[in-house]
Design goal:
13 strands, 7-stranded mixed beta sheet, 35% helix
Length: 315
């Protein structure tokens, strides 16, 4: 039976369809770990500008470097599958707690300005979504934001990626299968060139490209906080023989010193997930990103007794 990827119209939260829309969000969090948002409040004009400038920046500043890397590593004449490398060209913009956008070379002022405005819209959307999740989980409004806060506020940044055309798409992935370590991921993806897939019921399912949508997926931290009610889900990017795929993935993550643990209301019965400091989890994740998440959770359980649970910050 074909499964329909969940698409959520956020405008429906403002009228008679609020109840069914909230139920649809909850079902997506429980059974997919992904959903796609339309009418999310970020202007289409701004999204078009960000897309145009991102693609221009790649052509001007990164395309030649990528081609040189491919040639240097002999990737243009692959004969067997590559399992330790991703076919992608990326850079990272940090927004919170401190921005690095003025320090990234080769970005013109128009692009910097557009990305700042876009990041501000995504931050507001992330805050709204966290409160919607709180409502569905029976948690006090603001609970997730407080847990994420730590002492300096959340970590928030954007991975700007391009997945160029690949002559041997069956031998290399754009991005190998993984779950995301953090909290909430907000993706603005190319609406013409596909490639993103998630694993559901042992089948890889395409995340459909849709113009002006924002794709949401849940990271490992929300699985822990919900004691497994919501799940982070394996996903990957396939490369295509033609077409360059743009991807702007923005990660709204806990602060480095935030203490992550199952919320009392979510635990219900037995608490099966550990308590840990987010930065410690990220250090572990760095070396194990492309492996199963369960051993990461077990490793954090092993050091759980050393974690001191301070009061949740009041924002």
């Amino acid at each position: 039976m074909e499964q329909t990827f969940p698409v959520i119209d956020l405008e429906k939260l403002n009228g008679e369809e609020r109840g069914p829309t909230m139920a649809k969000i909850n079902d997506a969090c429980e059974n997919w770990g992904f959903f796609e948002l339309v009418n999310h409040g970020i202007s289409h004009e701004l999204m078009d500008k960000v897309e145009r400038l991102t693609k221009e920046h790649y052509r001007k500043c990164m395309e030649e470097r990528f081609k040189e890397m491919v040639a240097a590593k002999g990737l243009d004449s692959l004969q067997s599958e590559i399992k330790d490398l991703d076919w992608e060209s990326t850079f990272f913009l940090r927004h919170l707690p401190d921005s690095n956008i003025t320090q990234i070379p080769d970005l013109d002022e128009d692009y910097r300005s557009a990305m700042k405005e876009f990041a501000s819209g995504l931050e507001n959307l992330a805050d709204q979504l966290l409160d919607l999740l709180c409502e569905n989980l029976g948690l006090e409004k603001g609970y997730l934001k407080k847990v994420f806060y730590g002492s300096k506020g959340p970590n928030f940044g954007t991975k700007v990626s391009n997945y160029p055309p690949c002559p041997k798409p069956d031998l290399v992935k754009g991005l190998r299968a993984h779950t995301d370590a953090g909290g909430l991921i907000l993706l603005f993806q190319d609406d013409k060139v596909s490639g993103l897939q998630l694993l559901k019921n042992d089948q890889w399912i395409d995340v459909p490209p849709m113009r002006h949508s924002i794709v949401i997926n849940l990271g490992d931290q929300l699985e822990v906080i919900t004691n497994g009610k919501y799940k982070s889900v394996l996903h990957r990017v396939l490369v295509q023989p033609e077409g360059n795929r743009m991807s702007l993935a923005s990660f709204y993550n806990p602060g480095s010193d935030a203490v992550i643990f199952p919320a009392p209301a979510s635990a219900g019965g037995e608490v099966v997930y550990p308590k840990f400091v987010f930065e410690d989890y990220m250090k572990l994740y760095a070396g194990l990103k492309f492996q199963a998440k369960e051993p990461r959770f077990e490793a954090m359980k092993a050091v759980e007794s050393t974690v001191k649970l301070g009061p949740i910050a009041t924002v």
